[in-house]
């Protein structure tokens, strides 16, 4: 038995005794090149696309500049899958083992993770590998250019799902009962009041064809897969594959601060209580912990972005100290980052952490705009709203097949970058293959209609 395996077994036994509850975790050591691929693709095996290559180069540049180090990548499920960097020191991988167990406990017991786990199943790694295989078969049948063109559009819209909806859903009802009776004209009204005219018997209203969509539809991947006039079945399948993977990733995105903080709280506690660890290894592991949860990069005195590890870790420590571990477990179960930050980040903590909202001024000047706690909370959460994407809905499918999209800018609280929006709209037109228009506002809150 290797030293790492021995320490990992001891940490897992301690975790169970301390009440951590998680699905089995499969650990695997991986070389740096594979770890970078996993971090970039988001999964060990995923559908091929050029955009992942761009991200891979960006990640390599960040690593070469010392701005990014990958210790582990963990995939919730049943079982969970954890990949550890084989180039990590023994102390680092001991810490990472404890960190992963914290993630596994969070994933099994948080209500948002549980909901999406129930919809998508606990076998994301196998599902993504199956998707990649089906994409490869499509490339062999239809050519790389056609498949890549559909993937371009689907991945451009990968954040546009309805996270409040269901992964598996039926198409809209084709016919519905009208909700409003036709208005009676003056002649009909006078005729009905003539002497000798009996009151007509109540007639059950007939069905009418339902509008498409019957309500603003924010799940654009689902809508295009089901209602695009000319897509072939394999093209629809690509949209649905991208959509199912987006549903899997949403809880990770929406609970990042909570999840990383919970895992960091538990790796620190497990290491502290693991009396079987040699003192030199413990000290090295705690040094790595300090590097992970520091509020900003080494040598800096402030930063313009929060470290989710630091913010989450310090919030969990305060919750446990003030309210106890059982209350912390209730918070872990019930909240996502929106509730976590709004309910538990208070003025005292924000001041201790040196948090503020800043604004950029002409000449690259950065100024503190406010230290108001509500403004700080919303600045932290704003990038998380609606999966980080603009809130856009399909609102009308006309008889000629043209599609109207509407940007819900009042909910977003901002206009669109028109250049970028036009590029995404072109991707939508590529698969819709009929006229598409998007009604929005620009960054100056002026009404804009984009067409493709």
What does this 3D model show about the protein?
By secondary structure, this protein is an alpha+beta fold. The protein folds into two domains: 3-110 and 255-344, no CATH class; 124-169 and 212-252 and 390-451, no CATH class. The chain has 19 helices and eleven strands. It has helices at 3-17, 32-41, 50-64, 90-109, 111-120, 124-142, 144-156, 186-192, 220-227, 233-254, 256-273, 279-293, 308-323, 325-334, 337-344, 347-353, 373-381, 409-412, 418-432, and strands at residues 25-30, 72-75, 80-85, 175-176, 208-209, 357-361, 365-370, 392-397, 403-407, 436-441, 447-451. The strands form four sheets. Strands 8-9-10-11 form a four-stranded mixed sheet, covered by helices on one side. Strands 1-3-2 form a three-stranded mixed sheet. A hairpin with a 5-residue loop joins strand 10 and strand 11 (447-451). Helix 5 (111-120) runs antiparallel to helix 10, helix 6 packs antiparallel against helix 10 and helix 9 packs antiparallel against helix 10 (233-254). The protein is globular, with a radius of gyration of 27 Å. The termini are far apart. The model has no long low-confidence stretch (mean pLDDT 87).
Q: What characteristics describe this protein?
A:
three-stranded mixed beta sheet, 452 residues, four-stranded mixed beta sheet, alpha+beta
């Amino acid at each position: 038995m290797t030293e790492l395996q021995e320490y990992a077994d001891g940490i897992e036994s301690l975790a169970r005794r301390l009440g951590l509850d998680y699905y089995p975790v499969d650990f695997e050591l991986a070389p740096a090149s594979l770890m970078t691929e996993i971090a970039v693709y988001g999964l060990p095996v995923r559908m091929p696309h050029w955009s992942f290559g761009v991200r891979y180069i960006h990640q390599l540049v960040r690593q070469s500049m010392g701005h990014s180090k990958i210790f582990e990548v963990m995939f919730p499920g049943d079982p969970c899958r954890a990949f550890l960097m084989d180039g990590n020191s023994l102390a680092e991988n001991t810490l990472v083992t404890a960190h992963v167990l914290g993630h596994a406990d969070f994933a099994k017991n948080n209500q948002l993770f549980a909901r999406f786990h129930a919809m998508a199943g606990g076998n994301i790694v196998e599902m993504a590998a199956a998707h990649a295989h089906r994409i490869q078969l499509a490339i062999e049948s239809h050519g790389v250019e056609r498949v890549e063109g559909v993937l371009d559009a689907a991945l451009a819209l990968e954040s546009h799902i309805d996270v409040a909806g269901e992964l598996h859903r039926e198409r809209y009802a084709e016919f519905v009962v009208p909700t409003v009776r036709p208005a009676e004209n003056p002649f009909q009204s006078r005729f009905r009041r003539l002497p000798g005219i009996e009151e007509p018997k109540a007639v059950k209203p007939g069905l009418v064809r339902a509008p498409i969509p019957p309500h603003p539809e924010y799940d654009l991947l689902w809508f295009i897969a089901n209602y695009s006039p000319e897509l072939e079945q394999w093209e629809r399948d690509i949209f649905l594959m991208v959509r199912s993977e987006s549903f899997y990733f949403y809880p990770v995105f929406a609970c990042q601060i909570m999840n990383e903080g919970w895992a960091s709280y538990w790796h620190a506690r497990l290491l502290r209580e693991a009396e079987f660890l040699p003192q030199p290894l413990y000290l090295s592991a705690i040094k790595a912990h300090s590097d992970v949860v520091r509020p900003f990069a080494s040598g800096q005195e402030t930063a313009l972005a929060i470290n989710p590890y630091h913010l989450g870790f310090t919030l969990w420590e305060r919750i446990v100290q003030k309210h106890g571990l059982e209350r912390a477990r209730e918070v872990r179960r019930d909240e996502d980052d929106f509730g976590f930050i709004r309910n538990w980040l208070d003025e005292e903590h924000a001041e201790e952490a040196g948090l503020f909202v800043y604004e950029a001024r002409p000449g690259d000047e950065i100024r503190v705009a406010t230290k108001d706690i509500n403004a700080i909370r919303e600045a932290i959460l704003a990038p998380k709203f609606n999966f980080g994407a603009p809130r856009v809905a399909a609102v009308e499918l006309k008889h000629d097949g043209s599609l109207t999209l509407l940007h819900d800018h009042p909910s977003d609280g901002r206009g669109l970058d028109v250049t970028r929006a036009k590029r995404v709209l072109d991707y939508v037109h590529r698969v819709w293959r009929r006229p598409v228009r998007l009604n929005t506002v620009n960054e100056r809150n002026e009404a804009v209609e984009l067409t493709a």
